[in-house]
Amino acid sequence: MNIKEPSINKEQQDILDGLVAEKKFINPKYFYNHRGSKLFEKITQLDEYYPTRTELGILKNKSKEIAEFISSDSIIIEPGAGNCTKIEYLLTDIHPNVYVPQDVSEEFLQKSAERLSERYPWLEVHPIASDFSDPIELPEIYQHFAKHVFYPGSTIGNFEPEDAINFLKKMHQLVGNHGGILIGVDLHKDYETLHAAYNDEKGITAEFNLNTLNHINQILEADIDINQFEHHALYNSKQQRIEMYLRSKSKQRYEILGNTISFEMGELIHTEHSYKYTLDGIAELAQKSGFMLQKSWLDEAELFSVSYLMA
Ligand code: SAH
Ligand code: AVI
What we know:
Layout: H1 10-20, H2 34-44, H3 50-67, E1 74-79, H4 88-94, E2 98-103, H5 106-119, E3 124-125, E4 128-129, E5 146-151, H6 161-175, E6 180-186, H7 191-197, H8 204-220, E7 229-236, E8 241-248, E9 252-256, E10 259-263, E11 268-275, H9 279-288, E12 292-298, E13 304-310
Parallel strand pairs: 1-2, 1-5, 2-3, 2-4, 5-6
Antiparallel strand pairs: 6-13, 7-8, 8-11, 9-10, 12-13
The structure holds S-adenosyl-L-homocysteine and N,N-dimethyl-L-histidine.
Protein backbone atom coordinates (compact mmCIF):
# COMPACT_ATOMS: atom_id res chain seq x y z
CA MET A 1 0.00 0.00 0.00
CA ASN A 2 1.28 3.48 -0.87
CA ILE A 3 1.48 5.93 2.04
CA LYS A 4 0.94 9.43 0.69
CA GLU A 5 3.74 11.82 1.72
CA PRO A 6 2.38 15.10 3.12
CA SER A 7 2.87 17.90 0.58
CA ILE A 8 5.21 20.59 1.84
CA ASN A 9 5.17 24.21 0.67
CA LYS A 10 8.30 26.31 0.18
CA GLU A 11 7.99 28.15 3.49
CA GLN A 12 7.60 24.88 5.40
CA GLN A 13 10.57 23.39 3.53
CA ASP A 14 12.76 26.42 4.33
CA ILE A 15 12.00 26.11 8.04
CA LEU A 16 12.51 22.32 8.02
CA ASP A 17 15.88 22.73 6.25
CA GLY A 18 17.00 24.86 9.20
CA LEU A 19 15.80 22.28 11.73
CA VAL A 20 17.60 19.35 10.12
CA ALA A 21 20.86 21.26 9.53
CA GLU A 22 23.91 20.25 11.52
CA LYS A 23 23.80 23.63 13.26
CA LYS A 24 20.08 24.28 13.57
CA PHE A 25 18.67 27.70 12.72
CA ILE A 26 15.39 29.59 12.21
CA ASN A 27 15.30 32.77 10.09
CA PRO A 28 14.74 35.78 12.41
CA LYS A 29 11.74 36.90 10.36
CA TYR A 30 9.78 34.15 12.17
CA PHE A 31 9.90 36.18 15.39
CA TYR A 32 7.26 38.37 13.85
CA ASN A 33 3.78 36.99 13.87
CA HIS A 34 1.25 39.39 15.45
CA ARG A 35 2.27 38.36 18.99
CA GLY A 36 5.96 38.68 18.07
CA SER A 37 5.44 42.24 16.81
CA LYS A 38 3.65 43.09 20.06
CA LEU A 39 6.50 41.55 22.09
CA PHE A 40 9.05 43.51 20.08
CA GLU A 41 7.12 46.70 20.94
CA LYS A 42 7.39 45.70 24.62
CA ILE A 43 11.15 45.17 24.21
CA THR A 44 11.53 48.70 22.85
CA GLN A 45 10.09 50.05 26.11
CA LEU A 46 12.43 48.12 28.42
CA ASP A 47 15.01 50.02 30.49
CA GLU A 48 17.75 47.68 29.24
CA TYR A 49 16.87 48.06 25.53
CA TYR A 50 18.51 51.44 24.84
CA PRO A 51 18.41 51.39 20.96
CA THR A 52 14.83 52.55 20.38
CA ARG A 53 14.71 55.47 22.82
CA THR A 54 18.22 56.55 21.81
CA GLU A 55 17.40 56.55 18.10
CA LEU A 56 14.13 58.38 18.73
CA GLY A 57 16.11 61.04 20.62
CA ILE A 58 18.42 61.50 17.62
CA LEU A 59 15.50 61.70 15.15
CA LYS A 60 13.71 64.23 17.35
CA ASN A 61 16.76 66.48 17.86
CA LYS A 62 18.11 66.27 14.32
CA SER A 63 14.98 66.10 12.16
CA LYS A 64 15.62 69.57 10.68
CA GLU A 65 19.18 68.67 9.67
CA ILE A 66 17.99 65.31 8.32
CA ALA A 67 15.30 67.05 6.28
CA GLU A 68 18.00 68.99 4.43
CA PHE A 69 18.93 65.72 2.70
CA ILE A 70 15.40 64.62 1.80
CA SER A 71 13.20 66.82 -0.39
CA SER A 72 9.52 67.17 0.40
CA ASP A 73 8.52 66.03 -3.09
CA SER A 74 9.40 62.48 -2.19
CA ILE A 75 8.34 58.99 -1.32
CA ILE A 76 9.73 57.30 1.78
CA ILE A 77 9.92 53.52 1.84
CA GLU A 78 10.49 51.80 5.19
CA PRO A 79 11.43 48.09 5.04
CA GLY A 80 10.51 46.32 8.30
CA ALA A 81 8.38 49.27 9.41
CA GLY A 82 6.78 47.51 12.40
CA ASN A 83 4.55 49.96 14.27
CA CYS A 84 5.40 52.86 11.87
CA THR A 85 6.20 55.12 14.82
CA LYS A 86 9.67 56.42 14.00
CA ILE A 87 8.62 58.08 10.74
CA GLU A 88 6.33 60.37 12.76
CA TYR A 89 9.41 62.17 14.10
CA LEU A 90 10.35 63.18 10.55
CA LEU A 91 6.99 63.93 8.95
CA THR A 92 6.69 67.55 10.04
CA ASP A 93 10.14 68.56 8.77
CA ILE A 94 10.26 66.42 5.63
CA HIS A 95 6.58 66.45 4.64
CA PRO A 96 6.88 63.65 2.03
CA ASN A 97 4.07 62.89 -0.44
CA VAL A 98 3.92 59.16 0.14
CA TYR A 99 5.02 56.76 2.89
CA VAL A 100 5.40 53.07 2.00
CA PRO A 101 5.80 50.90 5.12
CA GLN A 102 6.69 47.28 4.37
CA ASP A 103 6.72 44.34 6.76
CA VAL A 104 6.23 40.56 6.98
CA SER A 105 3.92 40.93 9.98
CA GLU A 106 0.84 41.62 7.87
CA GLU A 107 -1.96 42.27 10.37
CA PHE A 108 0.29 44.39 12.61
CA LEU A 109 1.44 46.41 9.58
CA GLN A 110 -2.12 47.06 8.37
CA LYS A 111 -3.19 48.33 11.79
CA SER A 112 -0.10 50.52 12.16
CA ALA A 113 -0.58 51.99 8.68
CA GLU A 114 -4.25 52.75 9.38
CA ARG A 115 -3.37 54.50 12.64
CA LEU A 116 -0.77 56.64 10.83
CA SER A 117 -3.22 57.54 8.04
CA GLU A 118 -5.77 58.71 10.58
CA ARG A 119 -3.21 60.89 12.36
CA TYR A 120 -1.79 62.41 9.16
CA PRO A 121 -4.67 62.78 6.67
CA TRP A 122 -2.41 64.73 4.24
CA LEU A 123 -0.02 61.78 3.89
CA GLU A 124 -0.61 58.99 1.40
CA VAL A 125 0.22 55.72 3.18
CA HIS A 126 0.70 52.65 1.00
CA PRO A 127 1.55 49.55 3.12
CA ILE A 128 3.14 46.51 1.46
CA ALA A 129 3.04 43.14 3.25
CA SER A 130 6.05 41.21 1.99
CA ASP A 131 9.52 39.95 2.77
CA PHE A 132 12.12 42.69 2.38
CA SER A 133 14.46 40.20 0.74
CA ASP A 134 12.05 40.14 -2.23
CA PRO A 135 11.92 43.09 -4.65
CA ILE A 136 9.63 45.92 -3.52
CA GLU A 137 7.07 46.64 -6.25
CA LEU A 138 6.02 50.29 -6.25
CA PRO A 139 2.94 51.44 -8.17
CA GLU A 140 3.78 53.12 -11.48
CA ILE A 141 2.25 56.43 -10.31
CA TYR A 142 4.99 56.78 -7.66
CA GLN A 143 7.83 56.48 -10.14
CA HIS A 144 8.28 60.24 -10.68
CA PHE A 145 8.94 61.00 -6.99
CA ALA A 146 12.46 61.09 -5.54
CA LYS A 147 12.74 57.89 -3.51
CA HIS A 148 14.30 57.56 -0.09
CA VAL A 149 14.59 54.49 2.10
CA PHE A 150 14.17 54.87 5.86
CA TYR A 151 15.73 51.87 7.62
CA PRO A 152 15.87 52.54 11.36
CA GLY A 153 16.10 50.24 14.37
CA SER A 154 19.42 48.64 13.36
CA THR A 155 17.45 46.00 11.46
CA ILE A 156 20.47 45.99 9.10
CA GLY A 157 22.38 44.38 12.00
CA ASN A 158 20.23 41.26 11.69
CA PHE A 159 21.86 40.49 8.33
CA GLU A 160 25.29 38.87 8.04
CA PRO A 161 27.65 41.68 6.90
CA GLU A 162 27.82 40.29 3.31
CA ASP A 163 24.03 40.07 3.14
CA ALA A 164 23.76 43.60 4.55
CA ILE A 165 25.80 44.85 1.57
CA ASN A 166 23.60 42.90 -0.86
CA PHE A 167 20.48 44.30 0.77
CA LEU A 168 21.82 47.85 0.52
CA LYS A 169 22.70 47.27 -3.14
CA LYS A 170 19.04 46.33 -3.73
CA MET A 171 17.97 49.50 -1.90
CA HIS A 172 20.31 51.44 -4.19
CA GLN A 173 18.53 50.01 -7.23
CA LEU A 174 15.18 50.89 -5.67
CA VAL A 175 16.01 54.56 -5.00
CA GLY A 176 17.96 55.12 -8.25
CA ASN A 177 20.58 57.83 -8.59
CA HIS A 178 18.62 60.69 -7.04
CA GLY A 179 17.64 59.18 -3.71
CA GLY A 180 19.29 57.84 -0.61
CA ILE A 181 18.85 55.92 2.58
CA LEU A 182 18.49 57.13 6.14
CA ILE A 183 19.70 54.26 8.26
CA GLY A 184 19.81 53.67 12.01
CA VAL A 185 22.67 51.45 13.16
CA ASP A 186 23.52 50.30 16.67
CA LEU A 187 27.14 50.88 17.72
CA HIS A 188 29.70 48.55 19.27
CA LYS A 189 30.01 49.18 23.03
CA ASP A 190 30.79 47.57 26.37
CA TYR A 191 29.77 43.96 26.94
CA GLU A 192 27.55 44.64 29.98
CA THR A 193 25.25 47.14 28.22
CA LEU A 194 24.85 44.86 25.23
CA HIS A 195 24.37 41.70 27.26
CA ALA A 196 21.68 43.35 29.41
CA ALA A 197 19.81 44.66 26.33
CA TYR A 198 19.22 41.08 25.16
CA ASN A 199 18.81 39.50 28.62
CA ASP A 200 16.28 41.79 30.29
CA GLU A 201 15.15 41.14 33.82
CA LYS A 202 11.44 40.87 32.96
CA GLY A 203 12.17 38.10 30.46
CA ILE A 204 10.41 39.82 27.53
CA THR A 205 13.29 39.10 25.13
CA ALA A 206 13.11 35.45 26.23
CA GLU A 207 9.35 35.42 25.46
CA PHE A 208 10.01 37.06 22.10
CA ASN A 209 12.67 34.48 21.23
CA LEU A 210 10.54 31.52 22.38
CA ASN A 211 7.53 32.84 20.46
CA THR A 212 9.29 31.93 17.24
CA LEU A 213 8.44 28.31 18.11
CA ASN A 214 4.73 29.21 18.37
CA HIS A 215 4.98 30.80 14.96
CA ILE A 216 6.71 27.88 13.26
CA ASN A 217 4.42 25.37 15.01
CA GLN A 218 1.52 27.11 13.30
CA ILE A 219 3.22 27.07 9.88
CA LEU A 220 4.42 23.47 10.18
CA GLU A 221 1.22 22.21 11.88
CA ALA A 222 3.62 20.90 14.54
CA ASP A 223 3.63 20.65 18.33
CA ILE A 224 7.19 21.51 19.36
CA ASP A 225 7.01 21.95 23.15
CA ILE A 226 8.02 25.53 23.96
CA ASN A 227 8.48 24.65 27.63
CA GLN A 228 11.33 22.35 26.64
CA PHE A 229 13.41 25.29 25.34
CA GLU A 230 15.08 28.31 26.94
CA HIS A 231 16.38 31.68 25.75
CA HIS A 232 20.14 32.07 25.37
CA ALA A 233 21.79 35.33 24.23
CA LEU A 234 25.38 36.51 24.46
CA TYR A 235 27.60 39.21 22.99
CA ASN A 236 30.45 37.89 20.87
CA SER A 237 32.90 40.82 21.18
CA LYS A 238 35.26 39.44 18.56
CA GLN A 239 32.55 39.25 15.89
CA GLN A 240 30.82 42.34 17.32
CA ARG A 241 27.44 40.66 17.36
CA ILE A 242 24.74 39.47 19.71
CA GLU A 243 24.04 35.79 19.15
CA MET A 244 20.61 34.57 20.10
CA TYR A 245 19.63 30.92 20.42
CA LEU A 246 16.91 28.63 21.75
CA ARG A 247 18.44 25.89 23.88
CA SER A 248 16.80 22.49 24.24
CA LYS A 249 16.26 21.61 27.92
CA SER A 250 15.95 17.88 27.17
CA LYS A 251 16.45 15.20 24.54
CA GLN A 252 13.44 15.53 22.22
CA ARG A 253 12.10 14.10 18.98
CA TYR A 254 9.25 15.22 16.72
CA GLU A 255 7.71 13.92 13.51
CA ILE A 256 6.92 16.97 11.38
CA LEU A 257 5.46 16.71 7.88
CA GLY A 258 7.23 13.40 7.30
CA ASN A 259 10.58 14.56 8.77
CA THR A 260 12.13 13.44 12.03
CA ILE A 261 13.44 16.44 13.96
CA SER A 262 15.44 15.60 17.05
CA PHE A 263 17.19 17.72 19.66
CA GLU A 264 19.92 16.70 22.06
CA MET A 265 19.77 18.11 25.59
CA GLY A 266 21.56 21.48 25.46
CA GLU A 267 21.43 21.65 21.65
CA LEU A 268 21.05 25.17 20.24
CA ILE A 269 18.81 26.57 17.51
CA HIS A 270 20.28 29.81 16.20
CA THR A 271 17.55 32.45 15.89
CA GLU A 272 19.32 35.80 15.42
CA HIS A 273 22.54 37.72 14.98
CA SER A 274 22.47 41.40 15.81
CA TYR A 275 25.68 42.98 14.51
CA LYS A 276 26.97 46.16 16.09
CA TYR A 277 29.02 48.54 13.94
CA THR A 278 31.61 51.27 14.27
CA LEU A 279 31.32 54.48 12.21
CA ASP A 280 34.11 53.16 9.98
CA GLY A 281 32.14 49.96 9.55
CA ILE A 282 29.07 51.93 8.47
CA ALA A 283 31.14 53.94 5.96
CA GLU A 284 32.47 50.65 4.59
CA LEU A 285 28.95 49.19 4.25
CA ALA A 286 27.94 52.34 2.37
CA GLN A 287 30.93 52.34 0.07
CA LYS A 288 30.64 48.63 -0.77
CA SER A 289 26.99 49.01 -1.71
CA GLY A 290 27.43 52.06 -3.95
CA PHE A 291 26.34 54.76 -1.47
CA MET A 292 28.28 57.70 -0.08
CA LEU A 293 28.05 58.36 3.64
CA GLN A 294 27.00 62.01 3.86
CA LYS A 295 26.49 62.50 7.56
CA SER A 296 26.08 60.55 10.80
CA TRP A 297 24.25 61.80 13.86
CA LEU A 298 24.93 60.24 17.27
CA ASP A 299 23.48 60.62 20.76
CA GLU A 300 25.71 62.15 23.43
CA ALA A 301 26.79 58.78 24.86
CA GLU A 302 27.51 57.50 21.33
CA LEU A 303 25.32 54.44 21.76
CA PHE A 304 23.50 54.63 18.43
CA SER A 305 23.88 56.23 15.01
CA VAL A 306 21.61 57.57 12.29
CA SER A 307 23.31 58.14 8.93
CA TYR A 308 22.30 59.52 5.58
CA LEU A 309 23.77 57.60 2.63
CA MET A 310 23.44 59.21 -0.78
CA ALA A 311 23.04 57.03 -3.85
N1 SAH B 1 11.41 49.79 11.97
C1 SAH B 1 10.85 49.49 13.28
C2 SAH B 1 10.76 47.99 13.57
C3 SAH B 1 12.08 47.27 13.70
S1 SAH B 1 11.87 45.59 14.21
C4 SAH B 1 11.68 50.17 14.34
O1 SAH B 1 12.76 50.65 14.04
O2 SAH B 1 11.24 50.19 15.49
C5 SAH B 1 12.18 44.75 12.72
C6 SAH B 1 10.95 44.75 11.82
O3 SAH B 1 11.30 44.13 10.59
C7 SAH B 1 9.77 43.98 12.39
O4 SAH B 1 8.62 44.76 12.30
C8 SAH B 1 9.68 42.73 11.52
O5 SAH B 1 8.36 42.26 11.34
C9 SAH B 1 10.30 43.20 10.23
N2 SAH B 1 10.97 42.13 9.49
C10 SAH B 1 11.89 41.25 9.96
N3 SAH B 1 12.32 40.46 8.96
C11 SAH B 1 11.66 40.87 7.84
C12 SAH B 1 11.69 40.46 6.48
N4 SAH B 1 12.48 39.46 6.07
N5 SAH B 1 10.91 41.13 5.60
C13 SAH B 1 10.11 42.16 5.99
N6 SAH B 1 10.03 42.58 7.27
C14 SAH B 1 10.80 41.96 8.18
C1 AVI C 1 14.86 44.22 15.00
N1 AVI C 1 16.20 44.03 15.54
C2 AVI C 1 17.11 45.10 15.12
C3 AVI C 1 16.25 43.78 16.99
C4 AVI C 1 17.71 43.70 17.47
O1 AVI C 1 18.02 44.34 18.47
O2 AVI C 1 18.51 43.03 16.82
C5 AVI C 1 15.51 42.50 17.33
C6 AVI C 1 15.70 42.07 18.74
N2 AVI C 1 16.14 40.91 19.12
C7 AVI C 1 16.18 40.84 20.44
N3 AVI C 1 15.79 42.01 20.92
C8 AVI C 1 15.46 42.77 19.89
